[in-house]
Design a protein that fits this description.
- Helix content is 34%, strand content 13%.
- It is built from 17 helices and eleven strands.
- Strands 3-2-1-4-5-6 form a six-stranded parallel β-sheet.
- The longest helix is centred in the middle third of the chain and has 21 residues.
- The chain starts with 9 loop residues before the first strand and ends with a helix.
- This is Formyl-CoA:oxalate CoA-transferase.
- It comes from Streptomyces doebereineriae.
Length: 410
Amino acid sequence: MSRTALEGVRVLDMTHVQSGPSATQLLAWLGADVVKVEAPGGDITRRQLRDVPDADSLYFTMLNCNKRSITLNTKTERGQEILAALVRGADVMVENFAPGAVERMGFTWERIREINPRIVYASIKGFGDGPYTAFKAYEVVAQAMGGSMATTGFEDGPPLATGAQIGDSGTGIHAVAAILAALLQRERTGRGQRVNVAMQHAVLNLCRVKLRDQQRLAHGPLAEYPNDTFGEEVPRSGNASGGGQPGWAVRCAPGGPNDYVYVIVQPVGWQPLSALIGRPELAADPEWATPEARLPKLAKMFQLIEEWTSTLPKWQVLQQLNSHNIPCGPILSPKEIIEDASLAANDMIVEVGHPERGTFTTVGNPLKLSDSPTTITTPPLLGQHNEEIYIGELGLGDEELRLLRSGGVI
């Protein structure tokens, strides 16, 4: 029988909302035993954006599959004693509270390391040390301060946020990489260590091509951008590919909001593409035949392509382009993605049962390991595993558990 990659690894999940839970859910999908420690009132996202009354929201369920849940009031003396016992038995502890919150509970890194020298203690914050440290961080704030918004949108429009949650879930993925590296290093040294990941830093890492272009701009205009003029800063460039090969989203029939196909024009693809759009003569025309000749006319080139694509449905455009090995992809809406049979077949769109809300659809594990297949299990109800962990694993008695509950400790 296959063993999971992180079998035997205990993760103490003291995270909430998205950046932290996205990280710990990935660890759970990789096989770690993730114990979510919630205040008696629960993670705030259990109640946010509810679509089913009195049931955990999709916001919560889609970020907390494959975990166990206990409740604990860490502001009480007994709660802190229990937390210390949990730390003692953990391999990894993850938190994304505001700066200083865990320290105010009495759990500095020095104390945590004293309790458990082998623990990997990971913190997700909005920003690193410096003038922004105390700023409140949200998804779009991280996008704004990490370089994404300034370079997203069209030249004549305002900066735009991306629909991808690069500030929250993007940071969670970075945190997972750091945690796994620290666990691997522990195998050699026997020691745990502190891991810090900032949302601003993670977004910046995802925006490196724009920093590349900022430096290139010092040597002249960026020819592969569709912009007519350039100042001292990298401009917003609409749907330009941002890479060495020009690309654009071109409209298809019947002209709905997502009736588009993204097309990339490689040098080798120009001859078949010019034939497809009914302009075969452009393949040999010196004004169009080479990438260098086409660069100054990118807007006109994609206009010519769109004159063809706008007469056909996007799936037909996709079929014809792919038949000539031209890189392309349809713009898929969330509805189309949920209904995509291939994503379901790849376990990327998954149906999960839930005791309160019934079946819901969620995203599957994008990390595919041949010896460690992932089964997505239902997220825990609030405090669902209190008895299992407090009595069965920490050795507390039934009476003490009753007193902890009545005393507001759990």
